[in-house]
Design goal:
By secondary structure, this protein is α/β, with parallel strands linked by helices. The chain is about 40% helix and about 20% strand. The protein is built from twelve helices and twelve strands. It has helices at about 10-20, 25-35, 50-60, 130-145, 165-175, 195-205, 220-225, 230, 235-250, 265-275, 300-315, 335-349; strands at about 65-70, 80-85, 90-95, 100-105, 110, 125-130, 150-155, 185-190, 210-215, 250-260, 280-285, 315-320. It binds S-adenosyl-L-homocysteine (SAH).
């Protein structure tokens, strides 16, 4: 690995040794990258000039570049489009809540999970992101705004559990006391339900929140929305959730995108309640964000309310996700996609 920003303290010690420096320099280097959120070696003024240029030669810093920032006039939500060192672009979102700032990051360039309602998956998977590239989305936004980031959700483009090792490395870096020190309780990873990796994650014993994209009350309907449902049954996925709770003591979140006429009836709510009752969980209802490539429509306000009420009758915790940044390319992957479409168009003309 020659990605300096993905390295933990031990690995940085080895780098220092290799480049003829004392091991204690590793702590300084780590703090520059993960606490002071440096964007170049230049800034690291307590390291010698010689060391900095040896670092630059052996481990190029390669910062993310901000290509575009969109700011919502409604609620101050900001969408960032970043360019990676290899020219790929990814997007991240800053959401401002009363309880603090939350950044939503991407875990891959594109995605291969193929969920029918999601814009991120249309061009397929291009490549996974390194741990450093995940962390830097947070650092860049914190630097650019000058504001503290207290929560990170891995809910942008990509399937985090399809990039397992880099994801876990990122979670450890961002929660490291020598780094930004974001509490693990303020980190959320959202997955479409890759069962073996959910179980593996449980065994890491991190205190993060696991959010499962359920989106349907049974396997049949889930298959029409999410190809992953052909691979793992709902029973298997929910078993993995129970296991996650047993191992970590962390309450699960279930995400449920309400798609008009597909999964939003009262029977759907009954069936869903039957499947998840007794599980220590919280349901997050998301009126689906329509994308132009698909003809799904969002459920009406009343339908959403009724769905919520039904679940609550069973004693299930439910919230309706408040829409943020509705006036900027809202849904997952739409900013990146519209940017790529536009540049493709320009190349052709
Ligand atoms: N791959 C992960 C995380 C990325 S998506 C996962 O599947 O969970 C984050 C959440 O947004 C998921 O619940 C996903 O299903 C949902 N989502 C994607 N596109 C959406 C859309 N157009 N409207 C509403 N929710 C959407």
């Amino acid at each position: 690995m020659n990605d300096i920003k993905s390295m933990n303290l031990e690995e940085l010690k080895a780098v220092c040794q290799e480049l003829g420096e004392k091991p204690f320099r590793a702590k300084q280097l780590f703090a520059w990258i993960h606490q002071k959120m440096a964007s170049s070696y230049e800034e690291m003024t307590n390291l010698s000039r010689g060391f900095r240029s040896r670092l630059e030669e052996t481990y190029p810093f390669r910062p993310l570049e901000i290509v575009q920032v969109q700011t919502s006039r409604l609620d101050g939500t900001q969408k960032y489009l970043f360019e990676l060192f290899d020219g790929n672009v990814i997007e991240s979102v800053l959401m401002r809540y009363h309880h603090g700032n939350s950044v939503c990051i991407s875990s891959q360039v594109g995605c291969r999970m193929g969920c029918r309602f999601c814009a991120s998956t249309i061009g397929g998977l291009v490549r996974p992101l390194s741990a450093g590239e995940m962390a830097e989305q947070v650092y860049q936004i914190a630097r650019h705004t000058g504001e503290r980031v207290s929560n990170v959700v891995v809910m942008g483009t990509g399937e985090p559990l399809d990039n397992y090792d880099n994801l876990v490395r990122f979670l450890r870096l961002i929660s490291s006391p020598e780094g930004l020190n974001i509490s693990q309780r303020n980190l959320t990873v959202s997955t479409c339900g890759i069962v073996p990796n959910m179980r593996r994650l449980a065994q890491e014993h991190l205190q993060i929140t696991l959010a499962l994209s359920l989106h349907a009350p049974n396997d049949e309907k889930r298959k029409t929305l999410m190809p992953i449902a052909y691979r793992y049954t709902m029973d298997e996925v929910l078993d993995a959730c129970r296991y996650y709770f047993r191992e970590t003591g962390r309450r699960l979140t279930f995400e449920y995108a309400l798609v008009g006429g597909e999964n939003d009836s009262q029977e759907d709510a009954d069936q869903l309640a039957g499947r998840i009752r007794g599980l220590n969980c919280h349901v997050n209802l998301i009126p689906v964000n329509p994308i132009k490539e698909r003809n799904y429509v969002r459920s009406g306000k009343k339908v959403v309310e009724n769905f919520k009420n039904k679940l609550e009758k069973y004693g299930i915790n439910v919230t309706i996700r408040r829409e943020m940044g509705a006036d900027i390319d809202g849904a997952c992957g739409q900013l990146r996609k519209s940017y790529i479409d536009k540049t493709d168009q320009e190349r052709k003309t």
